[in-house]
## 1
Amino acid sequence: MNNPLSTITLFFSLLLLQVLILNNILFLGFINPYVYIAFVFYYPLKENRIPFLFYCFLLGISIDFFSDTGGIHALSIVFIAYIRLFFIRLYLKKTAIDYPFFNLNSEPFGKVFNYVVTLTVIHHFIYFSFANFSFQNFSNVLLNTLFSSIFTLILFFLGAYIFKKKN
Amino acid sequence: MQQIIYFFQKFKYFLFFLLLEIIALSLTFNNLDFHRSKFVNSANNLTGGFYSQYSNISDFFNLRTENERLSEENTYLKNLLAKKSYLDSLKELEFTVIDSSKFKQKYSYTAAKIINNNYSKQFNFLTVNKGQKDGISKEMAAFNSKGIIGITENTSTNYTRIQSILNRDSRINARLKNTNYFGTLSWDGKDYKTVQLYDIPRQAPLKIGDTIETDGKSTIFPEGILIGTISKINNGNTADNKVDVTLFNDMSNLGYIYIVKNFDKIEIKNLENNE
């Protein structure tokens, strides 16, 4: 995961997966997974965070281009990209020395689960709040956040499990 | 000076983060404003090209329903034509227009294919495969044989983005069929099969099942395009006099649409602005 080529592959495969397949799922009419945030989880930890934030912004804005949402995806993915480090320190207890050796697959599942769930719920909550853009139908925002988070998490952990076995 | 550089050094990640968030936020606000030209939308050549490739494949699954809809529309138009030729025969030949310069065409129609359709969000947009090249510009009506779809909003050379009627910013002039009682059609963002008609006069004889159609008063929509039937009437004395309208169109299953150009639009707009 540390070479740039696999980062680029991850970027484009997540983008195409999201816009061509996942955006059309609409389970029960409104539940949609947003698995592209896996980019935030799998991007290697580095001391210099500027490229990371920029790539996340680029991924978010590309998805916005396809799904006509203005800048909402970019807004929410940049937010979780920025606060990622805080949760890595909190749940996984990593310091600056551990960054080059950090690999999500080799961490204990319980800690990774907490970390991924927290970021996913935050991302979905920001996304749906801005997509709704008013305090009307606020219960819809909460329901959407809950159901879509569950859907995203199921797909993410299934995908993570499959690709872990291959490596 | 040293202090400022030190400050930027210390908070560079946070400042960069703030910069990106402000860009994203301004794009979000920009996207909600109908009258501003937009940078982020699916009507550019890259995303439009992607979607039209994708819809070339997925179209095959909708051919049957699309054919049924077309043959229904053909039957309707054939019936209209039959009625018209009967009426013409009653009027004798003296009314036939020979001078073609006196013939006045008010609208022209362009057929377009929907290559991207949203209906589950609060602010929904559609993308179609016709653009400026085909004479499409901002604020033209989009509809199909079953009813209205929305208003064109952003165009590129080959693609156009349409603001769906399922968009909380959408406002369309509509009336009760066969009367002149009109109101404003908008959407509350809850159900993609139901839109709301506001401000229709209290004395209008509304009944459940009555048809709502577009009103010729706006310069965008031609008169008499179908919208839907009344499904719920608010009998209380509320200020906005809200009426629920069930759409004829299934907005989640759309194929080909028409885009209407109004030739008199500029003339009418100029006249109204002169006051």
Note: The two ends of chain A are 11 Å apart (CA to CA).
## 2
Amino acid sequence: MSIDTFLILEKIILVVIIIAASMGVAAYSTWAERKVAAVMQDRIGPLRAGPFGLLQPLADGGKLFFKEEIVPDNSTKWLFMLAPAMFIFTSLMTSAIIPWGPDFVINGSEGARTVALQVADINIGILYVFGVVSIGVYGIMLGGWASNNKFSLLSAIRAASQAISYELALGLSLIALLMLTGTLSLRTIVEQQHGFWDGNYFTWNFFKQPLGFIIFLVCSFAELNRAPFDMPESESELNMGYHLEYSSMKLGMFLFAEYINMFISSAVLATLFFGGYNFPWMDQVQAAVPSGIFSLICVGVLMAKVVGFILFFMFVRWTLPRFRFDQLLNLGWTKLIPLALFNMLVTGAVILFFFNKK
Amino acid sequence: MSLHDIIFWILSLWAIVCAIFVVISRNPVNSVLFLIATFFAISGHYILMNAQFLAIVNIIVYAGAIMVLFLFVIMLMNLNTDTEPQKSRLVHFAALISAGSLLLVVLSAFRKAELTQIPVTDAGDIGLIKVLGKTLFDHYVLPFELSSVLFLAAMVGAMVIGRKEVVEEKSTK
């Protein structure tokens, strides 16, 4: 088995860039969240650190690093340490299969070389996302349990039941999409959404699966523990829930991982439903510029969509009040799952009767 | 030794050590965590055999859903060494007999095992989702549908049992 050294080098560089970018976006999401909240509540928001408070994330990070590290006496120490690491690890894992841009060609001395802007194109694609999402809840559960605090335990239990309930609807809403695409590979799904208009209809999956998109979006709010579904950490009743006993950078990792999760799931949403890196008139642009620049433009387009989703997540958080927990489970089991099943049925029927390519 | 062999041995060692810790750890939460680690090792084996679909489904269903529920129940019951129930002699005796008979079965299975056999590392395309789906819905469509009916029956059964308790609680109040 020969190993392509350049391939490994290329992938390592890509992984480092993606992780650095995720961290950067997550850091500035905290700043954006405060600014959005401030604007929506008619306040000014962070202002003192740098112009427009742009250095605020650095100041927060520095503060968290130098805080005292407290491990509760009655906690299960190794799990208490492991939980934040696991949470941030699972939140970064999904980024491996997102296609960030189209391939581009480098003309080196040894001939042309095609570089893919995706760490791994695996044929189980979207199922990998499910796998990571389903093990993502362990960080919260273990953190909450290991803290040995009643509030944390309650929050861990809430997180687990919420995650399991909404995973079902999430999966069912995607089945309808997968019936259309006929593949699990995220790369192929993005390539199918090429451009914006294919002569007859929109190519983006959002226009083919509006109901599926809405169900998926609601479920990703629940999976992200974002308001209005932020039951595990509802500060008014559980006092921050699972990260109540955490301090210093361990707390920082929990908070940070949530923003990374938001970034990654915005990228997944954009990839699955909003065309990924595709944009209208991309063929004309491709013909006009060299392939490296074109790839960069595509990455920029995907990032713009991601930022749009992140802002949407924030607008919702500062607009809607929190659900009650029984309402939350009720919505998941008795509304979203039947709706997703209905969507699946309709999609199947339409494909069978109108688009049967036999 | 090729790369496949090395990964195979690492995964096997990982799976066996974690499985042993599932049995011997005193704290049930640790047992559950070691079981999850074992599932990951087994998924690694599936990937070595080019069965990516089975690998990821193993993680989604077992590590991601069933073990979360296990952990959930154990956390709620708050089991630890202080509250460990004292089991009667009869239970100890029954455990000894069943473990002994399992040992017999395992020994008789291992007696004829060939230690020189090379581990299968690449079992072709059967584990890939497209091939697996076609096989399931072409050749095994009846068993597949029957097993889903069985699942449905089990699900309805669980709901009936769950519902009954609620009704009883209300009537006793």
Note: The CA atoms of residues 14 and 100 of chain A lie 10 Å apart.
